[in-house]
Amino acid sequence: MERSVVKFSHCDKDIFCFFVPEQCPECGVSFSGRRLEEAPVSIPNPFSNGHKTPCAFLVAPAEESSLRDFDGGSDLHTGITNTNGVVYNYTKDGVRRDHHGWERCISIPLVKPDMYNLIDQWDQYLEKFSTEQTWDPLWQSFNEENHNCYNYTLMYINCVLATQAKPALSKDEFTQSFILPRIKRASKYLTLCEEIAHCHFYIVDSPPKVTEGEGKSD
Ligand SMILES: [Zn+2]
């Protein structure tokens, strides 16, 4: 069971922890019987169970450390779920259909709940796409550079976009706009968890508060 991170503010600091303590780790003031100025907020966990996110793009770090310096390369494994949470992913042996193993990953939904037609066709599309010759290891072999799990998922996403009459994404666009922001968030979250596990708290200066009337020049 994963612990969740909460943030509260005191002493002009943002204090991240797993449990709000009885006293402020900065100034030692006791919180018992008092209220914090602002309620603690929970920091959303960027990881979820990929098998429970249908029709999604999944990123699973090979190791947690590989999230840190992800550059769009091959240290991450990516896959696509069907409507039942089976993860289709391309490996050296061809396309695998995983029923487990993706319990902790970053999931990016690819369809909106009202896209009924697409959802209806999804499993067929995915199965058909995955049986194309290009993913047959006897026909074309896996290549770390340009024929890997990332190409497989991106090509599939582009096929889906084409059915929606939308333009294809380049590998760069996909990486920059979809993947990197989420990877960064996940990496930051892991750092927080490590710090907290080590020192109980992770404390940073609170960002300056914008008071009424300031910074609202639009
Ligand atoms: Zn304090």
UniProtKB/TrEMBL annotation:
InterPro entries: MKRN2OS-like, MKRN2OS-like_C, MKRN2OS-like_N. Residues 3-28 form the MKRN2 opposite strand protein-like N-terminal domain. Residues 40-196 form the MKRN2 opposite strand protein-like C-terminal domain. Pfam families: DUF4796_C (PF16044), DUF4796_N (PF22795). PANTHER family: MKRN2 OPPOSITE STRAND PROTEIN (PTHR33963). This is MKRN2 opposite strand protein. The gene is LOC114801057.
